[in-house]
Amino acid sequence: MRNLLRFLALGLALLGAVAAHAAQPTSIRAILITASNDKAESDPRLKPYEAELQRNLVFSSFRFVNESSAPIPANGRSTLQLADGHALELEVEKGGGVRVRVVWTHRGAAMMTTSLPLRAGAPAVLVRRGGKDDNVPVVLVFAR
Amino acid sequence: MNCTRAQTSICAARDAALPPAEAAELSAHLNGCAECRAFKTTLENGLARWRAETAAVAVPDAELEWRAVRRRIQAESQRGAFGLPEAWLRPLRWAALPLGAAAAAAVVFFASPDRKPAAERSADVASAQPVTVEVPGDASAMVMVDDRSGWVFVVASDPRPRDL
Ligand SMILES: [Zn+2]
């Protein structure tokens, strides 16, 4: 019985270690885009993302504004400054899988706060639609 | 406009009036697509029920709500969440709309985007993780997980004047 328990404990510890290792991203990257309904040339910097954006969002064109990335420090917290007063406060929550809490502000005003799981290769796409659908800010958040 | 975009628009239109161009595109698509018409009707019915049930939850504690939703999903796994048939859930995969209240928190659950038979899906749902969204003022939010890519879309919208 004791051996069985020891075996189980070892198994759980190993699983935990593997999960923790696989789950910890080393950095977060964000891309700021503006979306609108005007027909426009596609931006080569958005080539890898354009198909999914077109398929899922109701905008006709996407314009790359800028991008920023930061390593995730030990406490999991970091701030990314993007262009035009946009900023992301990030908190990577430890535990099973990568979970990120994002506070998106624009010139100090709250845009949205979200907490979501983030998988490698699949970004979170944050969109803030205002009264008009031109130059709608969109932020792609990646863990890597 | 394809069906995925049409269905995203249908969801967005629940929260705020669509811009005229998008509304026109959507109505053109709906005229020619019985599947999206049915999606719209069922979503409206399902959401009415979802909203009634959500409004009855006094304390929007994510963990409690998640447990309740999970039980309900498991109970309804034959019918699909919100009583929608499985086929209609697939393109949006755990889309949910919050109430348009101040600082509304949307809690959405989704599983990894793999195509498994419905019988295995309740196991997926059990390991699903919630997405929470808070938006300021009277903005509303929608969360969608693309079934094909696994990308998570969080769309917050300011209220629009209904008649533009
Ligand atoms: Zn359709």
Give a written overview of the molecule:
- The complex is a heterodimer of chains A (144) and B (164).
- With 144 residues, chain A is of the alpha+beta class.
- Chain A has one domain.
- Chain A contains two helices and eight strands.
- Chain B is globular.
- Chain B has six helices and four strands.
- In chain B, the strands form two sheets. A two-stranded antiparallel ribbon of chain B has the order 1-2.
- Chain B has three domains: 54 residues; 33 residues, no CATH class; 35 residues.
- By secondary structure, chain B is of the alpha+beta class.
- Classes of the chains: A alpha+beta (144), B alpha+beta (164).
- At the A-B interface, helix 2, strand 6 and strand 7 of A face helix 1, strand 2 and strand 4 of B.
- Zinc ion binds next to helix 1 and helix 3 of chain B.
Features:
heterodimer; A: 144 residues; alpha+beta; 4-stranded antiparallel sheet; 2 helices; 8 strands; 45% strand; globular; B: 164 residues; 3 domains; two-stranded antiparallel sheet; two-stranded antiparallel ribbon; 6 helices; binds zinc ion
Please sum up the structure shown.
Chain A has helices spanning 2-23, 47-56; strands spanning 27-36, 61-71, 77-81, 86-93, 99-106, 109-117, 124-129, 136-143. Chain A has 144 residues and is α+β, with helices and mostly antiparallel strands.
Which ligands occur here?
zinc ion
DSSP strand tally of chain A:
8
How many structural domains of chain A?
A: 1
Count, helices of chain A: 2
Q: For the record, give the distance between the C-alpha atoms at the N and C termini of chain B, rounded to a whole number.
A: 22 Å
As laid out across the biggest beta sheet of chain B, the strand order is 1-2
Q: Taking Cα atoms only, what radius of gyration of chain A do you get, to the nearest Å?
A: 19 Å
Sequence stretches where pLDDT stays below 50 over 5 or more residues of chain A: 10-23
Q: Helical segment tally of chain B?
A: 6
Domains of chain B, number = 3
Give the SSE order of chain B as H and E letters: HHHHHEHEEE
How much helix is in the residues of chain A?
10-25%
CA gyration radius of chain B, whole angstroms:
16 Å
Q: Which pair of protein chains has the largest interface, and what are the residue counts? A: A-B, 32 and 35 residues
